[in-house]
């Protein structure tokens, strides 16, 4: 279990955090470049939760770099408990935000046909941002499961 | 860990499953009594995932009753693995459905003001059904965590 890919303080862990950060940051950029997104609560919540996810994963990526450069071991019970709680909280919050944004995008596209009625509405960007949020969630869920397994094996 | 409240084959487990089933069934009843719900994909998906949740929790409640009456022990690795996978799948699906319905309800209520513009739209029922779905999810997440801890402690 101690050799699990993606554990903190390794190149696997660093690449997992970097992907999480990259997708969360891309989601924020795409959504904030869509005019009028601030009129919809679900999209504002998506930006807020992706902001939290980006900050958390950037912090942990820096921590991984520090551990890699100074060859420190991050697999201590206290640190792993902190990572597990943080990862699960950000994973649940960002999954909720991605699902609620997904619900609104499907409503716009298929149910009330806002996208075909109003060509000014940047539906394409809303869709891309939601897809990026789901990708970021998937990486966050992977690291949350890795952390939980590592903590359980201590 | 073997004395964890809510483990399968006990009165705690049975009451957890009964609450899950009751809230999922109540959600389906409230949502299907709301005229026009079928025009919205998020609400149809909520009904489908709550149907799955109700079936799964009813099945496990029957299994708990059987174990209580015949005094069987359900804490075997194979059964617990099955419960863990089923619980996590239903929990994630129903949380996604509840969040997407929540996103649409907030949009109707606060962003596009459909509820105040169209008094025919049963927004109150949509809200109650979404709240019931979140309650059902909370019970499902509780049993998923209990199952996972039991499996990890075997």
Automatic annotation (TrEMBL), chains A, B:
<feature type="transmembrane region" description="Helical">
    <location>
        <begin position="54"/>
        <end position="70"/>
    </location>
</feature>
<feature type="domain" description="Casparian strip membrane protein">
    <location>
        <begin position="7"/>
        <end position="139"/>
    </location>
</feature>
<keyword id="KW-1133">Transmembrane helix</keyword>
<dbReference type="GO" id="GO:0005886">
    <property type="term" value="C:plasma membrane"/>
</dbReference>
<keyword id="KW-1003">Cell membrane</keyword>
<dbReference type="Pfam" id="PF04535">
    <property type="entry name" value="CASP_dom"/>
</dbReference>
<dbReference type="InterPro" id="IPR006702">
    <property type="entry name" value="CASP_dom"/>
</dbReference>
<dbReference type="InterPro" id="IPR045009">
    <property type="entry name" value="CASPL-5"/>
</dbReference>
<feature type="transmembrane region" description="Helical">
    <location>
        <begin position="128"/>
        <end position="152"/>
    </location>
</feature>
<comment type="subunit">
    <text>Homodimer and heterodimers.</text>
</comment>
<feature type="transmembrane region" description="Helical">
    <location>
        <begin position="77"/>
        <end position="108"/>
    </location>
</feature>
<comment type="similarity">
    <text>Belongs to the Casparian strip membrane proteins (CASP) family.</text>
</comment>
<keyword id="KW-0812">Transmembrane</keyword>
<feature type="transmembrane region" description="Helical">
    <location>
        <begin position="21"/>
        <end position="48"/>
    </location>
</feature>
<protein>
    <recommendedName>
        <fullName>CASP-like protein</fullName>
    </recommendedName>
</protein>
<keyword id="KW-0472">Membrane</keyword>
């Amino acid at each position: 279990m101690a050799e699990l890919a993606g554990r903190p303080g390794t190149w696997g862990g660093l690449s997992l955090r970097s992907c999480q950060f990259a997708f969360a940051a891309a989601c924020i950029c795409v959504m904030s470049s869509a005019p009028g997104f601030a009129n919809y609560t679900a999209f504002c919540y998506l930006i807020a939760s992706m902001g939290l996810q980006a900050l958390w994963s950037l912090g942990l990526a820096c921590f991984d770099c520090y551990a890699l450069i100074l060859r420190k071991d991050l697999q201590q019970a206290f640190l792993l408990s902190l990572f597990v709680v943080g990862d699960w909280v950000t994973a649940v919050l960002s999954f909720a935000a991605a699902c609620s944004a997904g619900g609104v995008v499907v409503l716009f596209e298929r149910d009330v046909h806002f996208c075909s009625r109003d060509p000014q509405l940047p539906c394409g960007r809303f869709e891309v941002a939601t897809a990026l949020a789901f990708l970021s969630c998937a990486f966050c869920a992977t690291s949350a499961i890795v952390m939980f397994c590592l903590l359980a094996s201590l």
